[in-house]
Amino acid sequence: MAEKVVIGMSGGVDSSVAAYLLKKAGYDVIGVTMQIWQENDIEVDQEEGGCCGLSAVDDARRVASSLGIPYYVMNFRGEFRKNVIDYFIKEYTEGRTPNPCIACNRYVKWESLLKRSLDIGADYIATGHYARIEQLPNGRYAIRKSVTSAKDQTYALYNLTQEQLSKTLMPVGEFSKDEIRKIAEEINLSVAHKPDSQEICFVSDNDYAGFIEEQTGKKFEKGDFIDVNGNVVGQHNGIIHYTVGQRKGLGLSLGRPVFVVDILPDTNQVVVGDNQDVFAKGLIADRMNFMAIEEPKIGEEVRLIAKIRYNHEGAPCTIKMIDEEHCQVLFDEPQRAITPGQAVVFYEGDYVAGGGTILKRIV
């Protein structure tokens, strides 16, 4: 009997071709779109993509029909609200810059979808991510970079557990984006040339601050911009409007470009400084998850490459667990705009070694 796999279908070309590749490989494939949008006030209906827009259901259903696989819509609103939207709002209000896609991957697309899929007798779940999953000689499962660095999505997947990885398939990781579109053309999929979605799916206009104020019903107080020496240099519009490294939209006229260096929620202050002030030699991270390697012993130093945001090239560093929860990361050279709330992801060659959430920078 063929192994059963539930694939999350976003209505985009990647997950659509993934479903086709799995069926071609002999799996019993079931297509599922995860209904994660909320009520009408923040319903997202993006014509040109978005993994949780209403158009996603129509596109995914058409693809499933053309592939001859069963298709369902599963309601994950509650899980998405708790683990993604509420987390996103909380992080911003506490002066951090969250990555909701990472939270969605771990707690909704994997934890919740995997549980429901196993409950209905599936052997695996699958996605259209540009990444590969391999079991290493040490027995651990790890995510490996996709064959195309241009679309590599491993950074946003560092948080998956060994159990989740052991039951996940990612067939798209062996192809480039052009190859995926070509396959979609060859099998006449209607989404072959559908553009990729860019924004956070539940904030379609990119106005994060407006979304947070609308959701909380709260207007965030203005406060002081201060320089690195503590001198007041202006007034900000509320800390949720800013992120570390930001230069545009500050509304300051200081005769030179300045950048956000730090956000201080306790005093409602935003620290600004020159470009060199945005660089730091390292960071402290928490909420650690190790993947290709076992969690290092406390005090043990490990050499790895670390990425501090999705489009960061990665930089050599030494990591060390300083207690059971916190990891110190020291870079060989100072890095720009290390941002609390974002993920730091460690690589050993092509493999994700692990990662965590940036707690603070080490100057």
**Main sheet specs:** 6 strands, antiparallel, barrel
Strand order of the largest sheet: 12-15-14-13-16-17
Mean of residue pLDDT values? 91
Cα gyration radius (Å)? 21 Å
Description:
It is a single chain. The relative contact order is 0.13. α1 packs parallel to α2 (54-67) and α3 packs antiparallel against α4. With 363 residues, the chain is an alpha/beta fold. The strands form 4 sheets. The chain has a 6-stranded antiparallel beta barrel. The N and C termini lie far apart (58 Å). It is built from 7 helices and 17 strands.
Key descriptive features of the protein:
alpha/beta, five-stranded parallel sheet, six-stranded antiparallel barrel, 17 strands, single chain, 7 helices
Condensed summary:
The chain is α/β, with parallel strands linked by helices and 363 residues long.
Structural topology:
Elements: E1 4-8, H1 13-24, E2 28-35, H2 54-67, E3 71-75, H3 77-93, H4 100-119, E4 124-126, E5 131-135, E6 141-145, H5 162-166, E7 168-169, H6 177-186, H7 208-216, E8 223-226, E9 232-236, E10 259-264, E11 269-273, E12 279-290, E13 301-307, E14 315-321, E15 327-336, E16 343-348, E17 351-362
Parallel strand pairs: 1-2, 1-4, 2-3, 4-7, 8-11
Antiparallel strand pairs: 5-6, 8-9, 10-11, 12-15, 12-17, 13-14, 13-16, 14-15, 16-17
Helix pairs in contact: 1-2, 1-6, 3-4
